[in-house]
Amino acid sequence: MDMIGTDRPAGEGEKEFLRHYHPKEYAPISITVDAIVFGVMKDATDNYRKLDKQSLKILLVKREQYPYKDYYSLPGGFVGEQETLEDTLQRVLISKTGLADIYSEQLYTFGSVERDPRMRIVSCAYISLVDIGKTKTAGAEWFSIEDACRMTLAFDHNLMIDEALKRLQGKINYTDIVFHMMPLEFTISELQEVYEIILGKKLLPAAFRKTISGKLEDTGKMTSNAGHRPSRIFRHRSFLKME
Amino acid sequence: MDMIGTDRPAGEGEKEFLRHYHPKEYAPISITVDAIVFGVMKDATDNYRKLDKQSLKILLVKREQYPYKDYYSLPGGFVGEQETLEDTLQRVLISKTGLADIYSEQLYTFGSVERDPRMRIVSCAYISLVDIGKTKTAGAEWFSIEDACRMTLAFDHNLMIDEALKRLQGKINYTDIVFHMMPLEFTISELQEVYEIILGKKLLPAAFRKTISGKLEDTGKMTSNAGHRPSRIFRHRSFLKME
DNA sequence: CTAATAGTGTCTATTAGACAGTATGTT
DNA sequence: AACATACTGTCTAATAGACACTATTAG
Predict the structure, then answer these.
(1) CB contact under 8 A, B3 and A115
(2) What residues of chain B lie within 8 A of the CB of A85, using their CB?
(3) Is the pLDDT of residue A130 over 60?
(4) pLDDT tens for each residue of B10-34
(5) Between β-strands A72-73 and A53-62, what pairing exists: parallel, antiparallel or unpaired?
(6) Residue B71 has what DSSP assignment?
(7) A84 in contact with B at a CB cutoff of 8 Å?
């Protein structure tokens, strides 16, 4: 995705121009990066026979400074002059949430004029997906999507979450992004529930099995002590995660 | 897509903070918007019996200033402090190409550090689609995709075009965006050729007719003087263009 | 045995792909 | 008549949806 703008026939005229160029007239606009971090978490149930319900979570941080002091916001930060957007994303994720090396993709760049009361700030939003079980977070809290959508978040972050959900919904059926949120090993029922949460509708188990099984690999293991018939445990085929 | 950041419970503390806030420490980064404008054009053939071949075109402007003086580039410009990204896009399109009110969607934001030799500039790229026959351009030239990809363009604009093509390819089969590039009325063969150009492969006429006809509406008109069997002329169903 | 989930088989409707064959204007 | 394109019909294979049915554990 990087392309250096200097590996071209740059004549003496251009070099001369650049020697005297001074970035005097750029508009006083800042750029930030915000991360919408999704993960799936199991909420324990009381009934020993029932499966733990899972829910889709999002990572928010409490703002300690104005503006929107004490409101929750997406983790984000200003883009440094010598940082790519991805560099900023990684730095912000580590410093505000403790997460390193997680799957991320650019979502959308939000540029409305009044989105930040301090000054003009354009924000490039990224979606990040994590396996909550494999990572530790620090300084940020997981909220269910429903709660996060009901809360008033800082800036236009409610809007960002809406768009991120739409993107997830749109991509879940023709990509393998869900697996970035799944543990290394899981049952088909667990996977189906994640699909159902993201798509917001129930799926037929028989049809789901058939379509998804091409992407899965049997680990040979089974669940146990579940109070009902054990389930095969699968992993994502062609997975690149560490064992 | 707009959300005003001020319709919230902003206490006296925040107001006080904002009164004294001075945007002193923003990074000296500028933001630009670049437009990848696609259209389809007919190239006349010599053989009276053959149909005119169509080709996918892209709109480029010749740079008159350093850097990349005399190179071709995508139409683009700096985002003004009181402009949204879409505002900038519209202004740039009108001033550099003469195009107004054309379909556009955000593509991707390019943020590598060295993409502009003058200073740090992050660029938000948009895809625009036009019916070339209905619009006049001024100050810009149409190039075939093949030519544009072979040329060395300013900045990372070759990369932007690559990404734009991928996006078009990805969306053509599950959206109706092609119709923004089509004239109001067209034959199925013409439409199929556009699909073939964008997808880079031949399609079977029978299958194409069947799948596409649900989106089309018969105008009742027919082509004539084509040197072969006339063709029905269709338009896009639920079209919003002006008659 | 029962509750709860796991998993299979089958039927149907729809769709994509392939391809043969027919239709119709202009020169 | 010949050319070039327009259009239709049919077969097949693959797929999605619906639903009934069987299987297996802990308690």
Answers:
(1) yes
(2) 109, 111, 122
(3) yes
(4) 678 878 877 877 765 566 899 999 9
(5) antiparallel
(6) S
(7) yes
